[in-house]
Structure to design on (1207 residues):
């Protein structure tokens, strides 16, 4: 099981950076770039590209291969695989590499990668052996080997200073691979010891045309930012751990301990990392039943989570045009829905889109005029690349009502819109699960760290009509 | 006070500014502060001066030159001409430069082997560097130089690094082994030794790479793992995520080759150990690890363990679109064998309109498989919804799924039919007709209810609404085929009452139809005439159709008509219908009777064929690309079959079945034997009287000896116990070997 290398493309399909492909013919990476660009050109809907593209061998001596690819901001990362291994391996590696890029460059973009191509090259070289085996992928260890770019290091290099002496120092404390724990840097010192946990939850749901929730699930992540000195051994316990299930953990978490008493015991990596991922189970009784007996089926329909809003859709088809009217009512008792985005795919050849947005409840007096017209009535746009109409409401206060009316016609005959709305939204300082951290104990070090816990939620709901 | 403070700040700033200014004027390239390294990627860099820069004494110049070279590489330019200059910098004190040099060397060492040899001394020196990073890098470059001549040097380097203090360097050593073996396979003996040393490594960091080396160099020597199997199982949790994948695959292969097939009543303790050690890894964030554990559970445990893979796999569906696509492929393979596992979770497979096209189709297929008596209703409703999808492929799949629903679950047939007939009104529901035809035919063959005829009459009445030519042709064929009526009705005798009207409607628009429809209209006319040759109106309409078709632009239609008209010659139809031309009269020939014509027209129709093509590649196992692309891929990995018999005897059989790896004779020569003994102290040199596969026997028996003792003793005391059992095992082994020696 191995991958052949990585190729990073910009959004016009040209390679920015690629790894060696030393055991492959020269044309091999080009073959994959070409296969990918062909797939993009052929795709019927923007973004709908088969993630594992079969690349036939170009002569009898070669074996066929496959091109796994992932989009990330405005770049595409391709990963050619030529043996009959698991494509998940390729996707996991791409994900790891993207995480590393985020760690090094903030949001990676074609421009930043070009600006720091020497760093990216070194990262490629350190994370992937020429035989296709991942090497060092923990950001903590990598930071010792490949220096992250910073304005300071550039300034100093211009001024003639040699910052790399730290690496040259070798086996002294703080050098590469001096830490006994692969994911944690050795010899860290902070003046104030802090650790922050962000509970980020995502609601996914499908609602049928009668307004009944068919399926809904909440997936959460514990995004952690750790700034602790030394080698702290943390023990994080929850007041209500029974509300979560299907967990996945960062390698630092001791799995046996979680199994025993549902608390997280770990020596954290430094900086940002995802400590755990989980699924929220609304009916705790069903969860415990499944926990003791893995054969017991999930009765998912009983576990539906109440959705934060209600949509009424009215769509009328004429010969070659469609008129639509959508009404969205917030059902949140106290929280505001932020950045609500409603999208509907209109089908090929959609044109002449007209629309108007308004407030069903006559507008909120306090809001009017203060935030500009958008926040009063919402706004809509037509995305011609995706042929989708996009309706945005920046802030939907509790029990506010929003309306979008519009129509469009279709150039090539009968309009064929997607019979569903895709609705995304954020809710600040709110979690669906209400998972609560009980306490954080740190052993092995003498300080008492500051612990911060926050929650935020988002959702992506398909509302059929 | 603050003024003074401000003063010093501004003074410092201006000093820094001056310093910077000097640098700027000195090196204009350094303007890249604002623009970053992208400057190097500008197309106007023709590679001038690089040579001079590389030869300069300033580190900055060199670094700049190296960055330019790497930029040229990334643009796909061949910069091997600078090899000589670059090699000189391999010993640079600046690590930044050195790393770029390494990157360059790794890429070009192959093309310039002679020059690369020049740098070997430096690498050998680097192997003793105090920095583990340098040591590992030196080994990586050294093993990347594809010059067979240096094979023995590389072996020495690997051996040295395999005993390194830093697990990172040992990992690099393990990864270098397959490369060295590819370069020159004559060193395999030495490499096996190194692998067996590395297999004992206590550090979880390097063991994954050792597993990779093992699979690449000596995949058949699973016997070498006997001693390590349990320790590796226990270590699994601490290994890094990539190592876990390789190790799990290796242990799975070991278990399937060496252990007894588990069944519900009895699971081998060692298999149980593997399962319990692997199970916590279901909680890995790495999807590939979860799949590797799934493979272990699916391929090495009795069916009662299989439900444990369900939740972890379903969790992966939510991680990303790409992973969802792949996991659905695997779920499909699993659900085909055991649909009951996934039946309760069908809600996870509901299609969203923003899913990838391929994902939608896979989900529809999955829903179809996992549907049960209780869930049929809601799944059918879903399929009906999906028929509105903007994607034609998905619509087709959904309609086909509705048809399948009706077939598999007879109770739902009426509902399916209503749905399909509604879809006929839908402009893109054309494939519904084809599905309906399929349904009707399969129902007529195995049931006697009047239901199918109802469908046909329903279709017949809508024939003008069906625009899609293929669907139209299909309906017309259906009408003709099933238009025979047993009881006398209101209309023409022997024909169901709705059939003639279809012919009338079709005859009206005959000229505007496509050839495929025209052919069916002609056939319909012939069939109706055969059923009732006496009706006057029918003959008139038939004659009208035949005369139009005889002069059609399409020669297929003309030919078919001529054939049919001749076929009907014996029916005694009026001259106006089958106008005989003079040529026919003179040619003579056989004239068929009505019954004979009827047999030809109505019988011998092709039996119902399943239209849903089953495109899963057989023999593809979980976690292979073949399962995802549905195209055969090159594969070295295979999943060994279980052995049927109990541990002890079967164990021996396996080793006997497996041919010893090719270089084994070398392995047995006295000199290498000696070193082997020295390093691994496994085989006493005296016990080699029999065959070439001898050392394997020894290993196996020792494994048995240890089986008993290992359970009682802890890992630490393993060393002594090996010493104790050595004498006994070697004796036994020679007996075993002679027994089986042919």
């Amino acid at each position: 099981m191995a991958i052949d290398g990585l190729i990073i493309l910009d959004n016009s399909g040209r390679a920015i950076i690629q790894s060696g492909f030393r055991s492959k013919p020269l044309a091999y990476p080009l073959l994959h770039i070409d296969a990918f660009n062909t797939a993009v050109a052929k795709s019927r809907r923007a973004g709908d590209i088969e993630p594992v593209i079969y690349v036939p061998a170009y002569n009898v001596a070669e074996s066929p291969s496959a091109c796994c690819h992932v989009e990330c901001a405005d770049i595409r990362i391709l990963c050619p695989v030529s043996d009959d291994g698991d494509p998940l391996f390729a996707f996991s590696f791409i994900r790891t590499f993207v995480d590393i890029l985020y760690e090094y460059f903030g949001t990676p973009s074609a421009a930043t990668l070009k600006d720091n191509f020497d760093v990216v090259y070194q990262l490629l070289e350190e994370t992937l052996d020429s035989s296709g085996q991942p090497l060092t992928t923990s950001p903590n260890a990598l930071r010792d080997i490949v220096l992250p770019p910073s304005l300071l290091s550039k300034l100093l290099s211009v001024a003639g200073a040699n910052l790399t002496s730290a690496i040259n120092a070798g086996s002294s404390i703080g050098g590469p691979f001096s830490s006994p724990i692969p994911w944690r840097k050795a010899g860290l010192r902070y003046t104030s010891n802090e650790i922050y946990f962000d509970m980020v939850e995502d609601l996914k749901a499908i609602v049928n045309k009668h307004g009944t929730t068919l399926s809904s699930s909440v997936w959460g992540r514990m995004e952690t930012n750790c700034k602790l000195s030394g080698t702290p051994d943390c023990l994080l316990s929850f007041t209500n751990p029974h509300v979560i299930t299907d967990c996945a953990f960062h390698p630092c978490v001791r799995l046996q301990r979680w199994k025993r008493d549902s608390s997280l015991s770990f020596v954290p990596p430094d900086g940002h990392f995802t400590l755990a991922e989980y699924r929220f189970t609304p009916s705790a009784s069903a969860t415990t039943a499944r926990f003791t007996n893995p054969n017991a089926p999930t009765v998912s329909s009983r576990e539906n989570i109440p959705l934060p809003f209600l949509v009424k859709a009215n769509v009328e088809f004429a010969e070659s045009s469609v008129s639509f009217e959508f009404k969205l009512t917030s059902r949140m008792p106290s929280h505001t829905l932020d950045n609500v985005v409603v999208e509907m795919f209109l089908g090929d050849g959609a044109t002449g889109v007209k629309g108007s947005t308004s407030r069903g409840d006559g507008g909120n007096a306090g809001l009017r005029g203060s935030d500009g017209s958008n926040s009063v009535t919402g706004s809509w746009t037509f995305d011609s690349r995706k042929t989708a109409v996009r309706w945005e409401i920046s802030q939907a206060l509790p029990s506010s009502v929003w309306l979008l009316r519009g129509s469009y016609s279709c150039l090539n005959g009968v309009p064929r819109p997607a019979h569903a709305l895709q609705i995304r939204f954020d809710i600040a300082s709110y979690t669906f699960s209400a998972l609560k951290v009980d306490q954080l104990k740190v052993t092995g070090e003498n300080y008492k760290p500051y612990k911060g816990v926050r929650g935020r939620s988002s959702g992506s709901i398909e509302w059929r009509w | 006070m603050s003024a003074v403070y401000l003063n010093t700040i501004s003074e410092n700033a201006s000093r820094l500014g001056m310093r910077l200014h000097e640098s700027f004027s000195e090196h204009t390239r350094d303007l890249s502060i604002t623009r970053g390294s992208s400057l190097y990627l500008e197309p106007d860099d023709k590679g001038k001066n690089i040579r001079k820069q590389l030869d300069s004494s300033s580190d900055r110049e060199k670094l700049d030159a190296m960055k330019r070279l790497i930029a040229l590489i990334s643009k796909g330019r061949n910069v091997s001409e600078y090899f000589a200059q670059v090699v000189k910098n391999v010993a640079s004190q600046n690590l930044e430069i050195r790393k770029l040099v390494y990157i360059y060397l790794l890429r070009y060492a192959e093309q310039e082997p002679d020059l690369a040899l020049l740098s070997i001394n430096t690498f050998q020196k680097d192997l003793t560097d105090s920095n583990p990073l340098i040591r590992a890098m030196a080994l990586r470059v050294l093993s990347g130089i594809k010059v067979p001549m240096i094979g023995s040097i590389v072996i020495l380097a690997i051996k040295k690094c395999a005993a390194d203090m830093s697990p990172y360097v040992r990992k690099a050593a393990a990864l270098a082994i397959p490369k060295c073996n590819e370069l020159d396979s004559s060193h395999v003996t030495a490499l096996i030794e190194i692998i067996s040393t590395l297999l004992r490594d206590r550090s979880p960091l390097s063991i994954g790479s050792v597993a990779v080396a093992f699979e690449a160099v000596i995949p058949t020597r699973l016997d070498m793992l006997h001693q390590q199997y349990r320790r590796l199982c226990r270590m699994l949790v601490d290994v890094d995520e990539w190592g876990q994948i390789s190790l799990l695959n290796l242990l799975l292969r070991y278990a399937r080759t060496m252990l007894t097939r588990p069944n519900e009543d009895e699971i081998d303790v060692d298999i149980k150990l593997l399962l319990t050690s692997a199970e916590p890894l279901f909680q890995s964030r790495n999807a590939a690890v979860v799949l590797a554990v799934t493979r272990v559970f699916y391929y090495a445990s009795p069916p009662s363990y299989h439900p444990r893979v369900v939740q972890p796999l379903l969790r992966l569906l939510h991680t990303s679109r790409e992973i969802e696509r792949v996991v659905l492929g695997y779920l499909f393979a699993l659900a085909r064998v055991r649909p009951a596992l996934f039946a309760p979770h069908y809600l996870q497979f509901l299609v969203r309109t923003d899913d990838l096209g391929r994902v939608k189709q896979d989900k529809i297929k999955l829903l179809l498989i996992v549907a049960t008596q209780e869930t049929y209703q809601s799944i059918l409703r879903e399929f009906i919804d999906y028929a509105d999808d903007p994607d034609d492929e998905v619509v087709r799949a959904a309609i086909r799924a509705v048809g399948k629903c009706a077939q598999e679950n007879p109770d739902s047939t009426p509902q399916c039919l209503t749905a399909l007939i509604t879809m006929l009104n839908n402009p893109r529901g054309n494939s519904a007709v084809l599905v309906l035809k399929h349904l009707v035919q399969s129902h007529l063959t195995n049931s006697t209810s009047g239901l199918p005829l109802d469908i046909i009459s329903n279709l017949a009445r809508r024939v003008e609404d069906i625009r899609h030519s293929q669907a139209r042709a299909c309906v017309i064929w259906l009408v003709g085929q099933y238009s025979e009526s047993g009881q006398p009705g209101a209309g023409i005798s022997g024909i169901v009452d709705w059939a003639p009207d279809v012919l009338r409607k079709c005859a009206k628009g005959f000229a505007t139809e496509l050839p495929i429809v025209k052919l069916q209209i002609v056939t319909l006319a012939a069939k109706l005439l055969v059923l009732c040759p006496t009706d006057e109106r029918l003959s008139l309409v038939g004659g009208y159709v035949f005369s139009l078709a005889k002069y059609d632009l399409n020669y297929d239609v003309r030919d078919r008509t001529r054939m049919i008209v001749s076929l009907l010659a014996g029916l005694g139809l009026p001259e106006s219908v089958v106008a005989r031309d003079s040529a026919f009269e003179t040619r003579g020939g056989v004239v068929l009777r009505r019954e004979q014509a009827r047999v030809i027209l109505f019988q011998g129709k092709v039996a119902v064929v399943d239209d849903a093509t089953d495109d899963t590649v057989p023999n593809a196992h979980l976690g292979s690309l073949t399962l995802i692309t549905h195209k055969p891929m090159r594969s070295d990995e295979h999943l060994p079959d279980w052995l049927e018999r109990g541990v002890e005897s079967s164990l021996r059989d396996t080793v006997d079945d497996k041919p010893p790896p090719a270089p084994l004779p070398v392995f047995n020569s006295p000199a290498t034997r000696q070193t082997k003994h020295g390093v691994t102290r496994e085989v006493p040199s005296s016990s080699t009287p029999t065959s070439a596969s001898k050392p394997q026997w020894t290993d196996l028996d020792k494994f048995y000896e240890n089986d008993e003792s290992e359970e009682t003793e802890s890992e630490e005391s393993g060393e002594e116990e090996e010493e104790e059992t050595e004498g006994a095992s070697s004796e036994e082994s020679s007996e075993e070997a002679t027994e089986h020696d042919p």
Summary: Confidence is low (pLDDT under 50) at residues 24-35, 649-701, 707-742 of chain B. Chain B touches chain A through 118 residues (CB under 8 Å). The first helix of chain B runs from residue 2 to 26. The radius of gyration of chain B is 39 Å.
